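Blinded run. Sample ID left blank on purpose so nobody reads anything into the name before looking at the predicted structure. Input follows.
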Amino acid sequence: MAENAFIKLVPSSAKQTITIEELKEFFHYYKNITAKTGDQLNWQYGENAFPYEIKETVDGKGKWFYLHSDHERYYAILTGIDKETIRDENGQEREQMYIQVTLPEQSTFGDKGKANEFCKFLAKKLQGELHLFNERIMYYYPRK
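Blinded prediction complete.
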């Protein structure tokens, strides 16, 4: 069965909305900074740090994409954005965007580890609320 993690953009997050293009930019930035770690160590770490490439389907255009790996220890990570309606403490309803990261059934333990790293990176950059695959919640936004 597929597993899901969510990064929710709450009212005190750095951003309230995000697009697929912005999400792709975060992915490229993440790949770039992990490759720089390898350069500093004089080792080809960039190819192993996050061995995924963006793949997009016609029906997922603008909503989701997946990260595919040809490496033997990895398979794929699906990433998409959507909105949900939530009720706040005052009883008022509002829309809230979230990023969903999904591991398909064929995913490996390596995929889960890399997906956790990427989720934490995104949540920290966006100051969001991270709901991990194990259903624990990490708060990266300023709380009252």
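Unblinding after everyone has recorded impressions. The radius of gyration is 16 Å.
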